[in-house]
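Hi,

I'm pasting everything inline rather than attaching a file, because the server keeps stripping attachments. The sequence lines come first, and each chain or strand is labelled.
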Amino acid sequence: MSAAKLQIRGLTKVFETRREEVLALDNVDLDIADNEFVTLVGTSGCGKSTMLSIVAGLQQETSGDVYVDGEPVRGPGRDRGVVFQAYTLFPWLTARKNIEFALRGEEMTGAERTSKANELLALVGLEKFADAHPNELSGGMQQRVAIARALSYKPQILLMDEPFGALDALTRQLMQELLTEVWEQHKLTVLFVTHDVEEAVYISDRVIVMTNRPGRIKTEVKVDLPRPRRYEMVGSPEFGALYSEVLESIREESLEIEQLGSTL
Amino acid sequence: MLRIGGGIRTFHFVGIAAFVFVLIFGLWLVVTANEWVKPIFLPGPIDVWNRLSELAASGDLAKDILISCYRIAIGFSLATLLAVPIGVMIGAYRAWEAAVEPLTDFVRYMPVVAFVPLTILWAGTDDIQKFLIIWIGTFFQQVLLVMDNTKRVPLDVVDIGRTLGMKDRSILARIIFPAAAPGIWDSMRISLGWAWTWVVLAELVAATSGLGYRITTAQRFFQTDTIIGYILVLGTLGLITDQVMKFLGRRMFRYAESRR
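And the predicted assembly:
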């Protein structure tokens, strides 16, 4: 196998506030292989979102490097698609136009853009809502369009920062299933951030557990559940074992934050 | 019905609002019909109506409305055309904000009234001076309102533009401006209300035409009915422009209403 699709080397981030310097990420190394689905989990404030933001090129690292296909990352670019937790569709455009907006940079005719947008809406099951504006869509639908938009211009890497974090538990499950299905059909390198352990285990090939601030990589759990994943797997002993392993690891960090080590 | 945040039917809402209008009108009618107040201080609604009808029949009312509207149209447009791009720029770039915002904030607190003598010295008493007063009274407020509208555009939405490989200029024109547009429209609607105040002020002090001018001359001849009639006309005109702006805003920014 060739070199990793995404390489993170010695990534360090220091936030300077008026009173102090906060070390958010401390010398993180991580490799993600081509078409691998990797999830970062950790307590709030552990730097997982910061890491994703730096990979996206939206934040500047203090030191260290990020490489995509061996090329150093300098700022944001179309080789990396991003989906945020917040709803980021443009409210003045319909679902279809939101996707077409992302395709403006491609060499395509208007008709080609429209048919590409329709194709992606169908992929996320929203072809009937092509002409709806975001205010007519549920939160789950909006995030599906946002995913379709990020996939539309065929980025090398998809970066997802708690994309289902604002949704209710049931919608969330459906979104995880949908994303897994889409990903299994159209493989792509994904870096996904969440603090939902079940979500992480269900969708990933590999789960990276981060320590409390300063964020470092604590453990890695390889998820060797077969694909295609089915929701029934959540009840299997194999799933349970992986879930416990990841949960146990994060729990130690949470206990430390809440200072409950001796109590519980 | 009387519970904090409790809802009422539209029918009830309109009913209560209409009742208050009728009540005040009735009070006015009773007080003047019994001459509890001298007509020179407070003429009755019928006198006011007759006077307005006379002025309407002679064409004076239409002429006055037209000239005041013309002054607002020019003064307000000049303010808006400058305030929107400047407001968007200082809302998007901190350096521009540093250059413009403190200065604007300072000027904003200077009473517009105090500029009247100065503008007369500079521009005389013709239309240019009226434009100037309307401009001074609205521009500085508008800049700050538009800056605020622009700042409310979520950073994540701007970041999406960046990840799509868009340049700053393109993000400004294709993301920040359309995202802020519904708010900007609302700010313009509010500042248009103030423009009505400034045009009348300018016409009260030094003018030979317009609604404000007619009010001043009426005062000279103790035509209280004209004064009250014109104040009511001004209120109505303000209400109409506001409703027109609201209607257009709803039409243009239907997508901004929350439906879910």
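Chain B has ten helices and no strands.

If the labels don't parse on your end, tell me and I'll reformat.
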